[in-house]
């Protein structure tokens, strides 16, 4: 399904009156703060976005779809830095006061105005190809774990490992450019438990008596190892248990996040001629266009197609630093929910009282 209609609230989100829904997790300012003066938190976060500019500029400059890419990438870096400087001087300029949604949206607007509709396409294509080649082996390793609870824990650890492939983080962009992002090594090198938010044991215990067989909606995050080696093996396990799985992916490209169209293409490469995913029927696996175009998400605005497919789900999973931690960590739903991801920014680690690259697994049962 492609999203070409009016946006609507996600139907399983508690109404704003019931839950006081605020998509952004970290408050950059409070009502008592001077509206004309940037707060220390706003300044720290704008510096974080400033530090990410070189990664965006380099990826945009290396693309082949935009004429004069190098010069336009330099123009992007200058324009976005100027916008951040403007907001530091006047938080209400450019649609402020700032939060992570506004800062991401301004960055995407500058990129798209200069013709960079998919600045990270080159690296996404390379990482998708690598992950597709590894998918059968990763699935077999999981299938060889006979104990269902241990297998589920291993699948969750795979989601954490895959989620480290994120080029919106200045620190991870440097690591990736230097070392790549070997998936199996990342599985072994996760920060030790207990994680900063660690409800995994509760979730696993509940999963043995709660089937969530109506439907599970998973808001997916990054291309490459994240969606292919982390999310898809987990989704395949749910399919084996009889659950319908709806994978909700972005409408438009943003950083190295997977898009709806890319995910449809990836699945076509992973399925065999009978539509099986390494021996598992995929009739109950649906791909939905979320309608989103950012690495973060405001759940009061999703596509009507996703709203329809998700209407009777009994489990919602928001995966990734952007969708499940920096936005929606404390969002409330009418059904069970999981927020899962790795912490990509020092500011988030400090806010949560954890470590950089720490893991978040927040389970809420209704």
SSE layout and pairings?
Elements: H1 16-19, H2 40-51, H3 53-61, H4 69-89, H5 100-113, H6 121-143, H7 148-163, H8 170-179, H9 183-188, E1 197-198, H10 200-207, E2 216-219, H11 225-240, E3 245-249, H12 260-270, E4 276-277, E5 280-281, E6 285-289, H13 304-310, E7 315-319, H14 321-326, E8 336-342, H15 346-352, E9 359-364
Helix pairs in contact: 2-4, 3-4, 4-5, 6-11, 7-11
Short description:
The protein is α/β, with parallel strands linked by helices. The chain contains 15 helices and nine strands. The protein folds into two domains: 87 residues, AF1104-like, CATH 1.20.1700; 242 residues, Uncharacterised protein PF01937, DUF89, domain 3 (Rossmann fold), CATH 3.40.50.
What does this entry look like structurally?
This protein is an alpha/beta fold and 366 residues long. The chain has two domains: 27-113, Up-down Bundle (AF1104-like), CATH 1.20.1700; 123-364, Rossmann fold (3-Layer(aba) Sandwich). The chain is 46% helix and 10% strand. The protein has 15 helices and nine strands. The protein has helices at residues 16-19, 40-51, 53-61, 69-89, 100-113, 121-143, 148-163, 170-179, 183-188, 200-207, 225-240, 260-270, 304-310, 321-326, 346-352, and strands at residues 197-198, 216-219, 245-249, 276-277, 280-281, 285-289, 315-319, 336-342, 359-364. The strands form two sheets. The protein has a seven-stranded mixed beta sheet, with helices on both faces. A two-stranded antiparallel ribbon has the order 4-5. The radius of gyration is 20 Å and the shape is globular. The protein starts with 15 loop residues before the first helix and ends with a strand. Residues 52-360 form the Damage-control phosphatase ARMT1-like metal-binding domain.
């Amino acid at each position: 399904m492609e999203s070409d209609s009016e946006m609507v609230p996600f139907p399983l989100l508690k109404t704003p009156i019931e839950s006081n829904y605020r998509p952004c997790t970290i408050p950059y300012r409070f009502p008592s703060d001077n509206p004309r003066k940037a707060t220390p938190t706003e300044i720290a976060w704008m510096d974080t976005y400033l530090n990410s500019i070189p990664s965006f500029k380099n990826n945009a400059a290396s693309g082949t779809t935009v004429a004069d890419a190098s010069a336009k990438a330099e123009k992007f870096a200058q324009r976005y830095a100027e916008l951040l400087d403007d907001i530091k001087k006047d938080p209400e300029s450019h649609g402020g006061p700032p939060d992570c949604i506004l800062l991401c949206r301004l960055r995407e607007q500058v990129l798209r105005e200069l013709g960079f509709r998919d600045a990270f396409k080159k690296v996404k294509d390379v990482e998708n190809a690598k992950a597709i080649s590894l998918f059968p082996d990763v699935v077999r390793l999981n299938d060889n774990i006979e104990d269902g609870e241990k297998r589920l824990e291993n699948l969750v650890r795979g989601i954490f490992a895959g989620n480290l492939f994120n080029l919106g983080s200045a620190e991870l962009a440097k690591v990736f450019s230097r070392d790549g992002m070997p998936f199996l090594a990342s599985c072994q090198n996760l920060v030790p438990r207990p994680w900063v938010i660690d409800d995994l044991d509760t979730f696993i215990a509940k999963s043995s008596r709660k089937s969530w067989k109506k439907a599970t909606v998973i808001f997916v995050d990054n291309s490459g190892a994240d969606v292919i080696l982390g999310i898809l093996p987990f989704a395949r396990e749910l399919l084996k248990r009889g659950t319908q799985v709806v994978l909700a992916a972005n409408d438009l490209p943003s950083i190295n996040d997977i898009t709806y169209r890319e995910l449809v293409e990836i699945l076509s490469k992973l399925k065999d001629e009978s539509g099986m995913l390494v021996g598992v029927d995929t009739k109950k696996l649906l791909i939905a266009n979320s309608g989103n175009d950012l690495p973060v998400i405001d759940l009061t605005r999703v596509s009507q197609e996703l709203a329809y497919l998700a209407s009777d789900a009994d489990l919602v999973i928001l995966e990734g630093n952007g969708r499940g931690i920096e936005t929606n960590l404390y969002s409330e739903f009418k059904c069970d929910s999981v927020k899962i991801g790795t912490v990509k920014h020092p500011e988030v680690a400090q806010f949560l009282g954890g470590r950089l690259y720490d893991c978040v697994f927040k389970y809420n049962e209704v």
